[in-house]
Design brief:
Strand content: 15-25%
Function: Catalyzes the reaction of cyanate with bicarbonate to produce ammonia and carbon dioxide.
Number of strands: 2
Distance between the termini: 55 Å
Helix content: 40-55%
Largest sheet: 2 strands, antiparallel
CATH class of the largest domain: Mainly Alpha
Pfam families: Cyanate_lyase, CYNS_N
Number of domains: 2
Number of helices: 6
CATH topology of the largest domain: 434 Repressor (Amino-terminal Domain)
Family: Belongs to the cyanase family.
CATH architecture of the largest domain: Orthogonal Bundle
CATH superfamily of the largest domain: lambda repressor-like DNA-binding domains
EC number: 4.2.1.104
Strand order of the largest sheet: 1-2
Catalytic activity: cyanate + hydrogencarbonate + 3 H(+) = NH4(+) + 2 CO2
C-alpha cells in the first residue's frame, strides 16, 4: 500500500461513518487539530501513541499504523490548483514581500520557522458573512554568518 492509498482509505472510513474532523481529532487528541488532520491526509506524521489511537479508531492494520508514524514526503504541486489552497498561495505571493520586509526590520536577517510553529484557526462571526481567523506564530531563526571574522556577528539578529 502507498501512503496516498492509506489517505483515501481514511477518507472513505470518515465518509462512511459520517465523522467530522472535530470528532476524529477529539478521539485521537494529543496535538493541534491542524497536525492531526495533516497527518491523516499524509502531510505530517503521528507520534506512535497517536498513530495507535488513529489505527484503533479507523480499524487500521499494524502496517498502516506504522505508515502513520513515518515521516512523509510533504507538499503539493505548485502552484496549487485547489481554489482555497491557491488563495493561501496568493496571500504569500501578494503579501510575502511586505511580510518579509516587516519581519526583517523587526527581527533582523532570518526566517520565520514553519517547523517550530503554532497555528490556530477559529470561526469569527460577522454579520456580513463569517470570517476565517488564522493565527500563526513561528520562531525567528536568524541566518548564521559562518566564516565570520572577529567583530562580525555570528547571527543575523537585528543590529542596534
Amino acid at each position: 500500500m502507498k501512503r496516498e492509498q492509506l489517505t483515501e482509505k481514511i477518507l472513505d472510513i470518515k465518509r462512511e461513518n459520517g465523522w467530522t474532523w472535530k470528532y476524529i481529532c477529539s478521539e485521537i487528541g494529543g496535538m493541534s487539530e491542524v497536525l492531526v488532520v495533516g497527518a491523516l491526509l499524509g502531510q505530517m506524521k503521528l507520534v506512535k501513541p497517536l498513530a495507535k489511537k488513529a489505527a484503533e479508531l479507523f480499524g487500521l492494520s499494524e502496517v498502516e499504523e506504522r505508515m502513520l508514524n513515518e515521516v512523509p514526503m510533504r507538499g503539493t504541486p505548485m502552484p496549487p490548483t485547489d481554489p482555497l489552497i491557491y488563495r493561501f498561495f496568493e496571500l504569500v505571493m501578494v503579501n510575502g514581500p511586505a511580510w518579509k520586509a516587516l519581519i526583517e526590520e523587526e527581527f533582523g536577517d532570518g526566517i520565520m520557522s514553519a517547523i517550530d510553529f503554532n497555528m490556530d484557526m477559529v470561526r469569527e462571526p460577522n454579520p456580513k458573512g463569517d470570517r476565517v481567523q488564522i493565527t500563526m506564530s513561528g520562531k525567528f531563526l536568524p541566518y548564521k554568518y559562518y566564516g565570520n571574522e572577529q567583530g562580525i556577528p555570528d547571527y543575523g539578529f537585528k543590529e542596534a
